[in-house]
UniProtKB/TrEMBL annotation, chain B:
Transmembrane segments: 20-40
Alphabetized InterPro entries for the sequence: Sortase (IPR005754), Sortase_Class_E (IPR053465), Sortase_dom-sf (IPR023365), Sortase_E (IPR042003)
Protein name: Class E sortase
Entry coiled-coil feature ranges: none
SUPFAM superfamilies: Sortase
Keywords linked to the UniProt accession: Hydrolase, Membrane, Transmembrane, Transmembrane helix
Entry keyword Glycoprotein: no
Organism per entry: Blastococcus saxobsidens
Residues the record marks as active site: H129 (proton donor/acceptor), C214 (acyl-thioester intermediate)
Recorded GO MF terms: hydrolase activity
Keyword rRNA processing applies: no
Pfam families in UniProt: Sortase (PF04203)
Amino acid sequence: MYPWIWRHLPGGTATKAVTALALVIGVCALLLFVVFPWMEPRLPFNDVTVGG
Amino acid sequence: MRGTQSTSAQSRWRTVARSIGEVLVTGGLVVLLFVVYELFVTDVLTDRTQDQLKDELRQGWTAEAEVPPVPRVSILGDAFAVLHIPRLGADYEQVVLEGTAEEQLAQGPGHYEGTALPGEQGNVALAGHRVGNGSPFLDLDRLRPGDPIVIETADRWFVYRVLGDPAMGDFTTDPSGIPGQQIVRPSDVQVISPTPNGAQDDPPSGAYLTLTTCHPKYSARQRLIIHAGLEGAGLTKTEMPDGPPALRES
C-alpha cells in the first residue's frame, strides 16, 4: 500500500516527501476532527449517566 | 520458465503479506490516535466550548438582571448554571447544560431532564465525564463529607454539602440515611430519585444534589455517585456579589 502510494506521488524525492507528510497530516486531521467526534457517542465506554 | 513463474508467485505473496502488515500497523496507529483524541483533543475542544458558554451565560445573566426575573424553565441544550467545587480548585467552574445526551455532555456537565432545578425541593441530578471532554468529574472521588458544592444561577448561589459525617469522614452516617458517596451499577436509576435511593415517584424529603460519573476511571462498568444536601436557602447575588464564603473553603 505505502510503496504503491509512494510510486504514484509526482515529482522528485523531496517533493514526494513533502506531499506524503501533507497526506499524513490531512488523514490525522480528518480522523481527529470528523471521524472520531462522529464515532465517540456510538462507543459504550464513556457513558456517565444512570439508567440510560 | 518454471523458475521465473515461482519467483513471480513468491513476490506476489510477499506483496500480499506486506500489505496485510501495513494495514495492521496502520490500524494500530489509528487506535493510538483515538486514545490521544479522547485524552487530550476532547479536553481542548471542551475547554474552548466552556469558555464560550461561560461568556454567553454571564452576559445573558447581566442582561436579564435589568428585566424582572421570571420563573426559569430550562430548555434542552441550554446552559443555565455554573457549578463550583472548591475542593477541586478555587478556579473550578463548569457551565451546566440541560440534558444528558452526548451532545450536551461533550460541552460540560448535563442536568438530567425532569429532575429538580437548583434550590428546589427534590434532587438536582447532574452527569459529567470522568475522563476526556475536559474531565469535569475526574476527581469526584476526592470529595469528603461536608465539602461544599456551589451552584450559581442567574440571581442566586446555592450551597450544597456532601452528605456524611464531616468529623469522622464517614460517608455512610448521615442523619438522612443517604450516603454521601456510593458506587452503583449503571442501571441503578434510583440514585437520581427525588429522595436519593428512594422510589422514583415518591415526594422529595428535602433538597438534594446528585453528581454521577463513570467508575473506575477509563471504564464505564460502574457509576460513581456523590449526594449532597442544600445548606440553608439560596443567597442572592445582590447580597453576595463575590459568592458565598463556602466558595473560599478548600
